[in-house]
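In response to the reviewer comment on reproducibility (Comment 2.3), we provide here a single inverse folding case reported in full, input and output, so that an independent group could reproduce the run without further information from us. The structure tokens appear first.
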């Protein structure tokens, strides 16, 4: 589909922007973060710098990036890279921040200092994971499905046997989307649910 393409380095500013504008369970998080880059620093940009071949962009009618899917085929290796390479400069940058615009910002900063932990599902046949976000202008047009199909094919080509992802419990529309894409709920959490899809 011509509206979907591989992510380029020039797309990174847009990836940050989309991450912020979908930060609150798919809704705009601009008013909740004093630093407009914080959400993208943790949830979006690192994937492009670690495994760009699994990052894809959805563009609008004028070719502007308005959605993305990013992820990794090996969560364990990605998490180690996050801890060793990506997070230390960010931790140094945010170390002296003592005021927060919202609870969401405070919670994300705590996560940034803690870093990704060793998960369960990455070791049980679902080594890949992803994040997908679309601005409202692209929603309901089949682009989410196209992004997902593109990611699934590439993850499979890279040898991943399965994909897992977390879905915020407030994002009811997302639950239906993942179920239509063949995902099943692996585990319920206090914040939402973990979904999984076997690729082989």
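Designed residues, in position order:
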């Amino acid at each position: 589909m011509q509206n979907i393409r591989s992510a380029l380095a020039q797309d990174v500013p847009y990836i940050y922007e989309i991450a912020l504008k979908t930060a609150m369970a798919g809704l705009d998080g601009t008013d909740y973060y004093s630093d407009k880059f914080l959400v993208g620093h943790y949830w979006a940009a690192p994937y492009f710098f670690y495994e760009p071949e699994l990052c894809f962009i959805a563009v609008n009618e004028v070719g502007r990036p308005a959605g993305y899917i990013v992820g990794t085929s090996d969560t364990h290796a990605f998490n180690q890279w996050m801890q060793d390479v990506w997070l230390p400069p960010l931790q140094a940058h945010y170390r002296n921040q003592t005021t927060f615009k919202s609870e969401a910002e405070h919670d994300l900063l705590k996560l940034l200092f803690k870093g990704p932990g060793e998960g369960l599902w990455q070791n049980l046949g679902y080594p890949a994971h992803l994040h997908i976000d679309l601005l409202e202008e692209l929603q309901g047009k089949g682009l989410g499905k196209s992004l997902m199909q593109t990611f699934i094919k590439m993850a499979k080509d890279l040898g991943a046997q399965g994909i897992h992802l977390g879905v915020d419990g407030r994002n009811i529309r997302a639950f239906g989307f993942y179920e239509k894409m063949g995902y099943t709920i692996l585990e319920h959490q206090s914040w939402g649910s973990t979904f999984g899809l076997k690729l082989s």
